[in-house]
Structure formats: structure tokens, C-alpha cells
Amino acid sequence: MTEIKLKSIGFAKNQEAKHVGGWAGVVTDLVIEKPYEDALLGLNDYSHLIVIYWMHEVNKCELRHVPQGKVGVVPEVGIFACRCTHRPNPIGVSTVKILEIQDNIITVQGLDVINNTPIVDIKPYTPQYDAISEAKVPDWVNKLDY
């Protein structure tokens, strides 16, 4: 297997130590390292952001999982068929609302990370690339907490 090295561009700062489901109202500061501050130019023209992060406290991989632990409510599925944390590479991706950008700090809402999660990359959400109008998902996905 090929080894890949990543470096963080910053970290997430919030009050979350452990949390499962219901992230919509969580407010988080993305503290971007000072050398990358200039890369934020123009980001304030967007309303949403895609955040790629490293789930640094995940220490196991499960090939099958019951999303959000909702046994009997949703089926057990393969880890690649859900957005669960225990992955071969604990990379997370979330689309969030930008509340404010001040210097090297981006305040966002709805990011499903705990405090001090390393941020690997950020990208502006653009409907031309990111919105899929006819996306299909299984019915059980509607039983999860967001």
C-alpha cells in the first residue's frame, strides 16, 4: 500500500469533547495556521464551506457498523456505506455554514468534530460542483440525527 503524508492547516476549537448526532447547532472556530491566512482571501464571498479533517481520536477500524448505534432502527452496513468514524483512514468531510471570518479564524455552524480536531483542508461549497439534485440514499438515512 502507498503511504500518504498529510499536514494540518489548523484545528477546530469548540466545546465538544464527545458527541453523537445532532450537530446542526454546534458552532466551531476553525483556527487556520498563520502561514495559510492569505489563502482565505475571497472565502467571505461564500455562504458555505467544505471542511476536510482528521478524526484524531479514532483508534480502530470497523468494516461493518450500525450508524449512530441505532440498533434495530437502522441496518448494519459496511463502513464505506455510512459516514461513521471508524474507518481505515479517519478522514472526515462536512459541509458547514460560514458565520464569520476574522483574520485566521473561520466560525462555522454544523461541523461534526470534537475540540482540537486537525483540519486538513477547506474548500468553498459551490452548487455547480457539489449539489446533486437527483441523489439517491437508502430510507434508513432519514432516521439519523443531523
From TrEMBL:
Gene3D superfamilies: YaeB-like. Residues 6-134 form the TsaA-like domain. Belongs to the tRNA methyltransferase O family. PROSITE patterns: TSAA_2 (PS51668). CDD domains: UPF0066 (cd09281). The keyword Methyltransferase applies. Keywords: Methyltransferase, S-adenosyl-L-methionine, Transferase. InterPro entries: TrmO-like_N, YaeB-like, YaeB-like_sf, YaeB_N_sf. The keyword Transferase applies. Pfam families: TrmO_N (PF01980). It comes from the Bacteria. It comes from Candidatus Uhrbacteria bacterium RIFCSPLOWO2_01_FULL_47_25. Coiled coil: none annotated. SUPFAM superfamilies: YaeB-like (SSF118196). GO terms for biological process: methylation. This is tRNA (N6-threonylcarbamoyladenosine(37)-N6)-methyltransferase TrmO. GO terms for molecular function: methyltransferase activity.
